[in-house]
Amino acid sequence: EESLYDFFGAGHASTSVSALTGVCVADRAAGRERHRVAVIGDGSMTGGQSFEALNHLGNLGHNALVILNDNDRSIDLTMGALHAKGTYEEYVQSLGWSYAIVKEGNDVVSLVRAIEDQLRRDGPKVLHIRTKRPDLSAPKSYKPGTTFQWWAAEAMRDILMRHRDIRVLSPAMFAGSGFAPLRDDFERQFLDTGINEAHTVTTAAGMAAAGGRPWVHIYSTFLQRAYDQVVHDVVLQGLPVVFLVDRAGLVGTDGPTHHGVFDQGLLMDLPGVVVWNPRNGEALRGMLEEVAENPPSGPIFIRYPKAKTEGARPMNFTPYEWLSKGDSKVLWVSTGAISDLMKNEGNHLHLAQIRPFFDDFAPILAEFDEIHVFEESTGLGGLGGGITALVEGMVPRPKLVLHKLPSTFIEHGPRLSLLKEHGFDPFL
Questions:
Q1: For residues 70-83, average pLDDT
Q2: d(Cα 158, Cα 288) in Å, to the nearest integer?
């Protein structure tokens, strides 16, 4: 836990007032009276769930205090009309909340007095505090050639120069992506939607339906927040939206809320989608160039990790690649960046495209007696689930051994250390 005062353990954006609503309802049912306080940032107020909660709890009328910490940004600058027009007072009052403001929120004495005053009042209350934080606005940059994020940004610079019709959308994560300098150079081609993953995906769907070329940059863990929109608004309609799924796999010190280990299994179950996992930076660049020059006819997901990738050689996109070949009847099949960490002088096949499988994949598998499948993912689906279904009817059926992350929430730690700790050590 980050603080002994944290009552609620998770902290995705825009969720705090919903959690507060649940606490208020539970307290009333139990006959408890106590102070109930939630803190929400101005960036999180751009998310739709914050409106849903304010609308609901404002109608219930419970004693509750929401502290709105307004410092003009989340990670990126805060977007949207509510912040730009400064209409928080009218907004929250229209939803049944009283409103007060502390214009110098960094003045601790004034802040404490305002909070104490609000806690003496009945009903739902919003305390708007204007604060300043240290300047953290310098765009995140990466050492040339060292990370997947650097390769993605370099490829996108060339692509956007050639294809002025491409629009890049992101739910407030351009700074973390390494795209912030590009946004400054190609302002008309970037759209920061605020912390609104569901809205971002459906906006992209609308753009694609209207003949546009939307590319959505989104972290793997935040794609979970828009899964319904991915399924119903994009995939069901077969719309050509390109998803750049950043932070796929283990993310090291960002911890269990940010590990991108669930989306691969979710995506593999969807009909008509294409899923690519590059093993290094130049493979990622080749994939981005491929979809830029040959626009897809349906949704495509390009998943890449927060990881180092040095010494990559230029390569065009190919759905699979033999990393090594030997004489044994044992085959390793892997996907994504973990492939370049593995040590094998025998038969090692890297799958860049895991959905759909390439046409000759089943005959290749049938040549081996034992197949080991490696993926930086969890759950029953994913690459292992797909290969299990593929070999099910083979006679003789190869022995299949699946190596994946456990179905648990993995804690913080260096990516390589976490991989070794969770079963991959003998192969790295």
A1: 76
A2: 10
Domain count, the chain: 3
- Predicted confidence at residue 72, as pLDDT, reads 79
| Host domain of residue 47 | 16-130
> What are residue 194's DSSP bridge partners?
none
Half-sphere exposure (CA, 13 Å, Cβ side) for 74?
26
Residue 334 and residue 295 share a domain:
no
Q: Residue type at 307? A: A
185 and 329: one domain? Answer: no
326-374 confidence digits (pLDDT tens)? 999 999 999 999 999 998 889 999 999 999 999 999 999 999 999 999 9
Helices and strands per DSSP (H, E), number in the chain: 16, 16
Whole-number mean pLDDT of the chain? 92
Based on the domain organization, do 25 and 82 belong to the same domain?
Answer: yes
Same domain, 121 and 171: no
Q: Do 303 and 264 contact (CB within 8 A), yes or no?
A: yes
| pTM of this prediction exceeds 0.90 | yes
- C-alpha distances out from residue 217 to 174, 249, 398, Å: 8, 16, 38
Are residues 247 and 190 part of one domain?
yes
- How confident is the model at residue 142, as a pLDDT? 61
State which H helix or E strand residue 243 sits in. Answer: strand 242-246
Is residue 9 one of the residues assigned to a domain?
Answer: no
CB atoms within 10 A of CB 293: 11
Q: Tell which residue, 238, 37, 46, 247, has the closest CA to residue 147.
A: 247
The verdict on 167 and 270 lying in the same domain is yes
**Domain presence at residue 23:** yes
pLDDT of the residue at 81: 83
| Tokens describing residue 57 | 């709890």
Q: Which of 77, 104, 130 is the last residue of a domain?
A: 130
Residues 332 and 289 in one domain: no
Q: DSSP letters along 134-186, please?
A: ----SPP---TTSBHHHHHHHHHHHHHHH-TTEEEEESS-HHHHT-HHHHHHS
Tell me if residue 219 falls in helix, strand or coil.
strand
Q: Which two tokens stand for residue 210?
A: 């209207």
Render pLDDT for 305-331 as a digit per residue (tens, 0 to 9).
999 987 556 678 999 999 999 999 999
Please list the helix, strand and coil fractions of the chain in percent, rounded to the nearest 5, in that order: 40, 20, 40
